[in-house]
Amino acid sequence: MNHQPQSFDSSQAQSPDELVGMMARAGRAAQRVLAGMDSAARASALRLAAKHIRSGAEAILAANAQDVEAGRANGLSPAMLDRLVLDEARLEGIASAVEAVAALPDPVGQVIDQSERPNGLRMSRVRVPVGTIGIIYESRPNVTADAAALCVRAGNAALLRGGSEAAQSNRAILAAFQKGLVEGGVPEAAVQLIPTQDRAAVGAMLTASGLIDMIVPRGGKSLVARVQQDARVPVLAHLDGICHTYIHAAADPQMARAIALNAKMRRTGICGAMETLLIDAGFGEAKALLGDLLDAGCELRGDARICALDPRIVPATDEDWDTEYLDAVLSAAMVDNLAGALAHIDRHSSAHTDAIVTDDEAAAEHFLAAVDSAIVMHNASSQFADGGEFGLGAEIGIATGRLHARGPVALEGLTTYKWLVRGTGQARP
User: Fold this and answer.
1) Fewer CB within 10 Å, N side or C side of the chain?
2) 174-to-11, 13, 280, 332, 414 alpha-carbon distances in Å
3) Which helix (H) or strand (E) holds 103?
């Protein structure tokens, strides 16, 4: 049964501002209904959404094929095409991720803490939905389902604006998702997709203060930079994923080689991919480790000491240390010690994910404490920088700021809190 509290015809909008306003108001009305549903009902609606994604596989994959064909014709890079392409396995992964979110503990209503004042007032802080969340993203169609599922589970309405590269895929996924929501009693307007690729619609979302409560951008540097510069709505985002892996002098050689190769080459186009490799001068297997990367097809750009180890390595420029390649390209530097690695990371890290490989527990603990990034790892590939790998289900993004949420943002990051005060007739003197 469809309980959509407000219906409208988006074709009646005369401008992007009017369109976004109409959709946001419908979303806010739907969010009030959604927030009033109990946890089991929201979870059930998400399981139905996953069911419809599976049953709609043929239509979704056909739509995706259109996007991929257009992307190739328009010269999308291999990394961008990899983000765009769906197959049966990836679509099953999308449906499974929605079910995983449905199975997660519901943060809404959770009591964060409580106390009693000397005058008898009982205070508590309780998690509540943020409200209406705008998500602006580029070529990954899985974000449509991930973002929608996380918002619905946490009682939020979602206003989605996907990139033109995945326009057909996003529409097909959302159509299936909404069928499940409606079947589960959630208003259709709780999750909406902006029906135009006009860039002015993004600007309208960024300035919709009072209608949209938070913006989450997921995409390239230019998109995130524009959002952070122009938004009049709070933003939860990371700008770059300049992730470092430091191979300490006491690293196990086989572990170091395996982690470095995985951190860079498993998937080069994700934000958790290693972009700079730091090798301690005391590590004895540097040449072999670099050879693994070169043999795997990775272009290496190194400082003078790194270049001296293999003639296939080209000199790095100053710009390389601050570049998120999202491709099979890696900058590499040799450092004298842990202090040198920390200094390099402090200068060049984007505060996303940085890792150390070492068997020296004291060095590892010092690194974990000293590196001020959202995610800091010991003896693990930076490719684990993902909400699903953290046990959070699907993530809505990685946040590298210091306010509200940091690291993989999932359900808890999509809530805020309110104070509840219970008295017995107290009046302030």
Assistant:
1) C
2) 19, 21, 48, 42, 20
3) helix 88-103
DSSP characters over 231-251? -SS-B---S---EEEEE-TT-
| Overall domain count for the chain | 2
Q: Which of 32, 34, 10 is nearest to 22 (CA)?
A: 10
The CATH number of residue 231's host domain is 3.40.605.10
Look up residue 100 and give its amino acid.
A
Residue 220 backbone class (left: φ over 0; alpha: ψ -120 to 50; beta: rest) = beta
- Which pLDDT does position 1 carry in this prediction? 40
Domain that holds residue 281: 243-384
Q: What is the pLDDT of residue 404?
A: 79
| pLDDT tens digits for range 89-129 | 999 999 998 998 999 999 999 999 999 999 999 999 999 99
The tokens of 123 are what? Answer: 């205070």
In a domain, 2, yes or no: no
Do the domain assignments include residue 127?
Answer: yes
pTM of the model as a whole: 0.82
The widest CA-to-CA distance across the chain, in whole angstroms, is 80
What spatial distance separates the first Cα and last Cα of the chain, rounded to whole Å? 52
Residue 148: HSE in the Cβ half-sphere, 13 Å Cα cutoff: 38
Please check whether residues 263 and 120 belong to one and the same domain.
no
* pLDDT of 3: 43
Are residues 214 and 332 both part of a single domain?
A: no
Query: Phi/psi at 300 (nearest 5 deg)?
Result: -110, 135
